[in-house]
Amino acid sequence: MQTKVILIFLFSSFIFSNFACDDNLDEIIPDVLVDIEFNLNLPQYNDLNFVMGAVKIDGCGYKKNGVIVFRLNESEILAFDATCPNHIDINASVNLDSNSSGTATCPHCGKVYSLVRYGYPDEGYPLKWYKVIKNGDYVRVYN
Questions:
Q1: How would you write the pLDDT of the chain (143 residues) with one tens digit per residue?
Q2: Which of 59, 82, 87, 102 could form a disulfide with 116 if both were Cys (CB 3.0 to 4.6 A apart)?
Q3: What is the three-class DSSP state of 23?
Q4: Residue 102 CB: number of other CB atoms within 10 A?
């Protein structure tokens, strides 16, 4: 009887631990400290004053690949690590597309990430998200 209980416990632990790992599938990009503050009135952030506007802040995020900040609508600003989840080993940074479509493309694999769809491509892993707080004209991006 005691052997059956131990076997059931071990089997249950194995099953639950495998399901618990599924929650981390979207965390391809390792955590690094990100804490950026800026004023929307500065010229380099002017695009964020318009819906679908985006800027890439270089020199921060994972491997200093940058952070993309995107104005989804009047009240919501999103931020993503610019590192392509498919190429973390070669230091690949996605670039904002210039057609104001709310997308960013990896120059190595050509994968297009939709910022409107919260950094998800058509298939595969999304861009890593960062938290955003907007207080008046000031924005803070952090983790």
A1: 555 544 344 444 443 333 333 344 447 899 999 999 999 999 999 999 999 999 999 999 999 999 999 999 999 999 999 999 998 888 889 999 987 689 999 999 999 999 999 999 999 999 999 999 999 999 999 99
A2: 102
A3: coil
A4: 20
Q: Domains in the chain, start-ordered, CATH in brackets?
A: 30-142 (2.102.10.10)
pTM: 0.80
Element (H, E) at 37: strand 35-39
The rounded distance, in Å, linking the Cα atoms of 93 and 99 is: 18
* Long-range contacts, stretch 59-63, CB < 8 angstroms, 24+ apart: 60/34, 60/36, 61/32, 61/34, 62/29, 62/30, 62/32, 62/88, 62/128, 63/88, 63/91
CA distance 12 to 7: 8
Percent of residues in the chain assigned helix, strand, coil, to nearest 5: 20, 30, 50
